[in-house]
Known about the structure:
Layout: H1 2-30, E1 32-41, E2 52-55, E3 65-67, E4 73-79, E5 84-88, E6 95-98, E7 104-111, H2 136-146, H3 148-151, E8 158-175, H4 176-179, E9 192-193, E10 202-219, E11 224-234, H5 244-254, E12 264-267, E13 270-273, H6 280-283, E14 284-292, E15 299-306, E16 315-321, E17 328-334, E18 344-355, E19 361-373, E20 380-394, E21 408-410, H7 417-427, H8 434-446, H9 450-464, E22 467-469, E23 472-474, E24 481-484, E25 488-497, E26 505-514, E27 519-529, E28 541-552, E29 577-591, E30 596-611, E31 616-618, E32 624-626, E33 630-641, E34 646-649, E35 654-657, E36 663-671, E37 682-694, E38 700-711, E39 721-722, E40 745-746, E41 748-757, E42 775-786, E43 820-830, E44 834-841, E45 853-859
Parallel strand pairs: 1-7, 11-21
Antiparallel strand pairs: 1-4, 2-3, 2-5, 5-6, 8-10, 8-20, 9-10, 10-11, 12-13, 14-15, 15-16, 16-17, 17-18, 18-19, 19-20, 22-23, 23-25, 24-25, 25-26, 26-27, 27-28, 28-29, 29-30, 30-33, 31-32, 33-36, 34-35, 36-37, 37-38, 38-41, 39-40, 41-42, 42-43, 43-44, 44-45
Amino acid sequence: MEYQRSTSAITKTLFLLATVMFLSITVALGQLKTVQGIVKDSKTKEPIAYATVAVVGAPSSPGSAMSTQESGRFTLKFPMTYTKIRVSSIGYDYKDVFVTNDETQQIEILMDAQDNTLDEVVVRAKKRKYTNKENPAVALIRKVIENKSKNRLTGQQFAQYDQYEKISLGLSNLSEKFVNKKIFKNYQFLFELDDSAKTANKYLLPAFMEEKLSKVYYRKDPKKTKQYIVGEQRAQFDPKFIDNDGLSAYFNKLYESVDIYDNNITLVTNQFLSPIANSSPTFYKFFITDTIKTQQPWLVELSFFPRNKADMLFKGQLYITLDGNYAVQGANMTVADDINLNFVRDMNIELKFDQDESKRFYLSQSTLGIDFSLTDKGTGIRGNRTVNYKNYKTGVVQPDSIYSGPETVIAYNISDGKGTRKLFDAQRQIPLTKNELNIYHNIDTLQQIPSFKTFMDIAALVFSGYKQAGPVEIGPVNTFYSFNPVEGFRLRVGGRTTESFSKRFYAESYAAYGFKDEKWKYFLSGTYAFNNKSVYSFPQHYIRASFQRDTKIPGQALEFIQEDNFLLSFKRGDNENYIYNDVYRIDYRKEFENRLSIGLGFNATKQSPAGTLRYQIIDQDGQTRVFNEINSTELSVNVRYAPHEQFYQGKLYRTPIFNKYPIFNFNYTAGLKDVFKGEYSYHNFNVSAFKRFYLSQFGYADVDVAGTYIAGKGIPFPFLTIHRANQTYAYQLNSYNLMNFLEFVSDHHVSANVQYYMNGFLLNKIPVIKQLKLREVFSFKAVYGGLRDENNPDHSNQVFDFQKNANNEQSSYTFASEPYMEASVGLSNIFKILRVDYVRRLNYLNHPGAPKSGIRARVKFDF
């Protein structure tokens, strides 16, 4: 009994002691002490700026570590239980200092310089003009640049890893007043409080979510990156209103992956110079602001800022390893407030790197957040993209079959939503936030609400020009009314079927009436899709039969807009040269996943002159023969290759998302004489190439070159190349803006079109002007060719005469001894949406009605 009582007493005593200790620690943790001090060099007694002062053993928190000010002073507040702080700075041995439990205390810390410190590393408290010369920060960044090739992924012979990426977007900065409006009564489940907002009571509306799981393999020689997508899910809208695939491609283009080792980083369709680009010391200022010796290898915090705040540059911090490899261990970047970048209210980039088995650092997580808005304080769109990498391995040789085929392939066949969700629940590397978890459910719920369907219907009408009407849609509305000299006042109405009618068969039609010529025009087509997909979505595979009776300006092939668009009704000068066209067509088109597309066409056309256009031949004896119509039958082949092309598919046309890869086109058209009334035999060969050249801080240039050769004799001008002119007041990229309609005709030619966008590189350097955030744009266009004698009316009486104007002056020509040339200089980004050019015609000024110069404008939304 005595032994048991003794044991019980000991147990109670130990329990009481433990309780007292626990309470003491708890109380101590709740009490804070304040340590103020100054860090100095032990020999010179000069203050040491930007030294790191950290509480040893304390968890990472805002008060547990800081950098000294320029005066060397610091203030720390931390719990009583911690009694040691550590001070470190580049060029000095770190120093541990014990502190008392007094609530406030003052200390002085003297640091000993390292023996191997570089002599040129000098810290001065006074400000001086920034220079690269003898700057240790610049010397360090040059070491990083020197070692880039061995530290980046492409420096490895073989690499592989698992990749998880997610991108989410939503409306941001919504006020409580906005959310509580009566119109949103049925939508309250969508809104969520924004914890990251800078002011209280702000809401966000999640609207888009996409996730991907992939396995990625890299091989250096021959160079190839292969991504196998093993899982994908997305919150989707009704495809009647939105091209979900195109929307995904566009968002992924805005929120591209960030590779700090690339010289240029593409974001929001612009190129930013990397802080470790080869030329970065020319455009950035660098400062050593901290050293971190609490981990291995030691790190240097290198802060950087743009020399010019309006340029496409970052600001932030890099963390560089001091192990002789000078690798980037982490990066935090954003942009300056004064940057010449549209609609971007905020941007944040965070990169994290981990060590692999060979002690090399690889990118383990990339986070990019961008907040778009028309104004600084208004509603915006906030998006975040996070890419996480794990199971990173190097040196694992894979068979060649792993790398064969396109760079990205779908490697899953999960068709039901439950299977996909289970896959992501098991393999998702980063848990979804509360906001992200709700997006999938909310988007599905939202689309069941009738008022939202009505809203989307109206939005589709405004942005695409088509009005939904059950299984058909009516439009486009911008063609309902127009006017021209031949037809006068013109009314048109049209429409087409949708996938609700059929997923394989599509019909399209319109009817128009001109009140001056009192003629009906109409169009009817039927399209059959072989792949059971919309004929407007990628990859297209269809056959189409159509008939069209309408007017046309010779030589005008409008790729993205209808010729009877209301805005094109306003033209400079006089032009009444029109054609009435009757065209029967059969077209076949197939697109492949590698962005190669093939088109075959067969058409029979009857052309009749309209307005002042004349088809006439003057014989050797001076007699004039007038033709009321000509007939042609053509067989055509088109091959287009656009590697890695991305685009947004609208209801009218595709909007390309340009990249660094070229686009090639080859067209061949054969005129078939004596086939379906065809009167002429010829062979038309046309090749063209387009490429966007990115020039880093100097902007980018779009270069388009083309050439045509038409073989055949006695070919009248309607079947030759009538060079594309522009008599509107809009600046057209692919037309000659000071050339008149039907002014130049050729049967062989070469052309070049250069559009150079400098993105404000010069204007950003001019005081006051730079506040307007204007951007320079330059262009040069030239075309040169000719007519062989057998197709030139000046040498042959077997072809139609050149056209004449109302004053009986010749108004159509072929080229003389020099090319036609025009150039322009302009300002873009006016009010963030307008481009205005002064265009100058450089030659052939003696032609009747040839303008010497002009002002042209173009609406251009760009970041």
